[in-house]
Design brief:
Blueprint lengths: L2 E3 L5 H10 L3 E3 L1 H17 L26 H12 L3 E4 L2 H15 L8 H12 L3 E2 L2 E3 L8 H11 L4 E3 L5 E3 H7 L11 H6 L3 H31 L9 H5 L4 H14 L3 H8 L9 H4 L1 H23 L7 E2 L5 E2 L7 H29 L22 H17 L21 H33 L5 H11 L12 H12 L2 H6 L7
Parallel strand pairs: 1-2
Antiparallel strand pairs: 3-5, 4-6, 6-7, 8-9
Length: about 500
């Protein structure tokens, strides 16, 4: 089923195209709107009054009028000069998400491009042609210029791309192999191809999708650790959570309570004569932290949904066919929530690492072997797994420094304030990956601690541990730990740990 390009585009549509190569289709209704705006732009091209991006230069050169015979050259020169990224190659899914979102705006009828451009861009996506783009080059203002310019350059048959199989080749060869013709650009089209916040928005949607799995995984690993430490479950009661009625906190507390229900390990903790009055913050306050992450995600998702129905270009073609300069390309709304999420991710990972450390410390683990070692002193157990967590958490704290609090002037001070939203998106992407690895280590550690107790866990957690034991060893003498950490990360990122728990319990 193709993804229909239009204002009803969803997060799931973006994921389907970016990660799973779902085909796209532009409706005839959308193409009619495209034709209407393109015809109007063609008329303005002959106007004696200069119009930005149509008969003038760009940015600081906006006051220069360009002769008719040089305007096609102008559009191609714009794309060539702006395809100036450098650094590590950006991931395929990010570029595909960006291209889909730019296609969505071009198909809105608010950019003035011709249907040939819209259909050519859609065909390039459907053919799996992905321009090779470096990580550095976008300031998140005037659009994600460099990344989008690489995509536009490929549309014109220039630049370097990867085909659907991942083979690197010149864009002209990839287009020819797919049966596509390069597009020759006309007035305003070069500008319309690059003037959007699509790169940062695509990465926001990808991150939110991954975090949907990770926040529930954090509730799961919390429940595993609480059982591993024979902790107190009363703190997760609904009436206590209702005293501070944040929606995310309620959802996380309900998840943890459901995952702890009827746990023999919890009952064992209650029966001890030296029962503690309360657990440490990293256990007791988990719903408050993970819940706050959920609420932050909800705000970020709201911003992303507004952006999905937006048509970002400068100048924009309005419904009454005015062509007006505007500032909608500024990435601040997206940049802020990207940074906000990076802060939340760092804090969630930090709490997970503290829970892991508690299971490894014989002074706080309630009778577990030091570092969960099989033979402490001879074996080191999971001592260094916690070091790995700690190194990631420290990196996440650095990544939590907001990119959007910075700005740097460009284009001879015409573009004197920029969002740096692309930079915020890149560091959030790295942070989300780090969070998954930290949660994987906590799950690995908690499973080992529960097994060492020799007392049964709750049914959903027992199912999770059973799944883990299919590819991860039971407690025993030290072995090569890196592959186990990698496997735990894979189980977390794939959602398989949560899926195992869901076999016996409903979660939010």
């Amino acid at each position: 089923m193709p993804v229909l390009i239009g204002p009803d585009l969803t997060f799931a549509d973006v994921i389907a195209v970016a990660r799973h190569d779902a085909p796209v289709e532009v409706s005839e209704q959308a193409l009619t709107a495209v034709d209407r705006a393109a015809d109007h732009v063609a008329q303005l091209a002959d106007d004696v009054v200069p119009h930005y991006g149509i008969s003038t230069g760009f940015g600081a050169l906006a006051s220069k009028r360009v002769p008719v015979e040089q305007r096609a050259i102008l559009q191609h020169s714009l794309i060539r000069s702006h395809a100036a990224s450098t650094g590590a190659e950006v991931e395929r899914e990010v570029i595909r998400a960006m291209m889909l979102l730019r296609l969505k705006t071009m198909a809105s009828g608010h950019t003035g491009v011709r249907r040939e451009v819209v259909l050519g861009y859609a065909a390039m996506l459907n053919a799996g042609i992905t321009p090779i783009t470096g990580e550095y080059g976008s300031l998140g203002c005037s659009g994600d210029l460099a990344p989008l310019a690489h995509a536009a350059l490929a549309l014109t048959g220039e630049g370097i791309v990867r085909d659907k199989a991942g083979t690197q080749m010149p864009a002209a060869e990839a287009l020819a192999a797919a049966g596509l013709e390069p597009i020759t650009l006309r007035e305003k089209e070069g500008l319309a191809l690059i003037n959007g916040t699509d790169g940062m928005l695509g990465q926001l949607i990808l991150a939110l999708t991954d975090l949907d799995t990770l926040v529930t995984t954090a509730d799961l690993t919390t429940a595993m650790t609480v059982q591993a430490l024979c902790g107190i479950d009363a703190v997760f009661a609904p009436d206590l959570q209702a005293l501070r009625p944040h929606e995310g906190q309620k959802l996380s507390a309900a998840n943890i309570a459901a995952l702890l229900k009827d746990s023999p390990l919890i009952q064992a903790g209650k029966s001890e004569e030296s029962k503690r009055v309360q657990d440490a913050y990293s256990l007791r306050c988990a719903p408050q932290v993970t819940g706050a992450v959920r609420d932050t995600m909800a705000h970020a998702a709201h911003v992303a949904r507004v952006e999905l129905v937006s048509a970002i270009d400068n100048p924009a073609v309005t419904d009454d066919l005015r062509v007006e300069s505007n500032g909608n390309f500024h990435g601040a709304p997206v940049a802020y929530v990207l940074d906000f999420l990076a802060i939340a991710v760092a804090d969630l990972a930090s709490m997970s690492e503290r829970r892991t450390d508690r299971m490894l410390d014989p002074a706080r683990s309630r009778g577990l072997n030091a570092f969960l070692a099989n033979d402490p002193g001879v074996d080191s157990g999971y001592m260094i797994a916690q070091y790995t967590q700690a190194s990631i958490v420290s990196e996440l704290k650095r990544l939590a420094v907001p990119a959007s609090a910075d700005s740097i002037p460009t284009s001879a001070m015409q573009e004197d304030h920029v969002s740096l939203g692309w930079s915020a998106a890149r560091k959030l992407r790295r942070a989300v990956d780090g969070l998954g690895k930290v949660l994987g280590v906590e799950a690995l550690t908690a499973a080992r601690a529960i097994d060492m107790r020799g007392i049964g866990a709750s049914e959903p957690v027992a199912r999770v541990i059973k799944l883990m034991r299919e590819s991860l060893p039971e407690p025993g003498p030290d072995s090569f730990l890196a592959p186990d950490i990698a496997e735990a990360d894979r189980l977390v990122a794939s959602g398989k740990l949560v899926a195992a728990a869901l076999e016996s319990v409903e979660l939010n």
